[in-house]
Design brief:
The complex is a heterodimer of chains A (about 110) and B (about 110).
Chain A: E1 5-7, E2 10-13, E3 19-24, E4 31-37, E5 43-50, E6 53-56, E7 65-69, E8 75-79, E9 88-95, E10 103-104, E11 108-112
Parallel strand pairs in A: 2-11
Antiparallel strand pairs in A: 1-3, 3-8, 4-5, 4-9, 5-6, 7-8, 9-10, 9-11
Chain B: E1 9-13, E2 18-23, E3 33-38, E4 45-50, E5 55-56, E6 61-64, E7 70-75, E8 84-90, E9 103-108
Parallel strand pairs in B: 1-9
Antiparallel strand pairs in B: 2-7, 3-4, 3-8, 5-6, 6-7, 8-9
The chains are: A mainly beta (about 110), B mainly beta (about 110).
């Protein structure tokens, strides 16, 4: 596709359940980033992929959060045992390499009830 | 890693130039300055970036001071659709962008 695609666009889940969020980057983009944005707040960096390796996981808030990337393609962010504080918009971005500007997806709005 | 300082909010009259300042006094020689904006309920949108020289594209101009400690994003003829939060970011050594709180620009008729 022409842009970064994220799915689902909205997800409501019960506290304690696991969720998977998907990101399809722009074809050929080697760098992929995940951010979280709570309501009314700025963007928090979560994790960065270069290809399928993750040189920087420093933003993952706890061991309930993990992410994988298949080659230079799709990435999934998994949140286990969701908590209400996990409610946020999760944004994915990709770029041709680590020095170009990013293109962001529209995000997944996660609501934990 | 360099941090940036921006005013929390600004107003601009429609049709006038919007000049958004940013301080990045600890920037190092090989770090780029990036500008993004986020319109309500959308993902951030890339605007422009630069290293030393002033840059211009179809959206905006970026003026970087000679000592590189500050920069200004200029929207030459602001429209109501330019109302957004504008982020000035210095890219860190790993390449990731660390977003601050940005400047909330309100363009008024």
């Amino acid at each position: 596709g022409a842009g970064v695609s994220q799915s689902p666009s909205n997800k409501v889940t019960e506290k304690g359940k696991d969720v998977e969020l998907r990101c399809d980057p722009i074809s050929g983009h080697t760098a992929l980033y995940w951010y979280r944005q709570r309501l009314g707040q700025g963007l928090e960096f979560l994790i960065y992929f270069q290809g399928n390796s993750a040189p920087d996981k420093s933003g993952l808030p706890s061991d309930r959060f993990s992410a994988e990337r298949t080659g230079e393609s799709v990435s999934t962010l998994t949140i286990q045992r969701t908590q209400q504080e996990d409610s946020a918009v999760y944004l994915c971005a990709s770029s041709p390499d680590s020095y170009y500007g990013y293109t962001f997806g529209s995000g997944t709005r996660l609501t934990v009830v | 890693d360099a941090k940036t300082t921006q005013p929390p909010s600004m107003d601009c009259a429609e049709g006038r130039a919007a000049n958004l300042p940013c301080n990045h006094s600890t920037i190092s020689g090989n770090e780029y300055v990036y500008w993004y904006r986020q319109i309500h309920s959308q993902g951030p949108q890339y605007i422009i970036h630069g290293l030393k020289n002033n840059e211009t594209n179809e959206m905006a101009s970026l003026i970087i001071t000679e000592d590189r400690k500050s920069s200004t994003l200029i929207l030459p003829h602001a429209t109501l659709r330019d109302t957004a939060v504008y982020y000035c970011i210095v890219r860190d050594r790993s390449g990731k962008l660390i977003f601050g709180q940005g400047t909330e620009l309100s363009v008024k008729p």
